[in-house]
Design brief:
By secondary structure, the chain is an alpha+beta fold. It folds into 2 domains: 70 residues, 2-Layer Sandwich (Double Stranded RNA Binding Domain); 55 residues. Helix content is 45%, strand content 14%. It has 5 helices and 4 strands; from the N terminus they run E-E-E-H-E-H-H-H-H. Strands 3-2-1-4 form a 4-stranded antiparallel sheet, with helices on one face. Helix 2 packs parallel to helix 5 and helix 3 packs across helix 4. The chain is elongated and about 55 Å long. It comes from Pelistega suis. This is Type II toxin-antitoxin system HicB family antitoxin.
Amino acid sequence: MLSYPVNLMLDDNGTYLVTSQDIPELTAVGDNEQEALLNAVEALEAAMEIYFDQKRPIPMPSSVTHHQSAVELSALVTAKVLLMNEMLQQNIRKAELARRLEVFLPQVDRLLNLRHSTKLDFIERAYSKLGKKIHIEML
């Protein structure tokens, strides 16, 4: 899963501010550190949606240093982010992926919707149509 380092700072008003050097669009606040980091997960997913909408490559996370916290994407969202990056790298549009998968375009729209619970086998099929495989590992 993709784990992005974040900076957690106590703001002037007593709340905690979360920012990211990798994803400048990520900004979140919370009354305490735990709430701020929880809100940062939602902010990170919202930032990913901006990249998807603008068809921009999503930056990969840098290494987390010992004085940073991290915000992690779920396995499903990570798979979709990496799929989108691969599509952009190969210059494959959604319509072309739909043709390769032999499905209608709305199915590919749902596949690339971060809030849609896409089945893993459909994501695997999409990767295979791009000449890639998913590798899952337990840590």
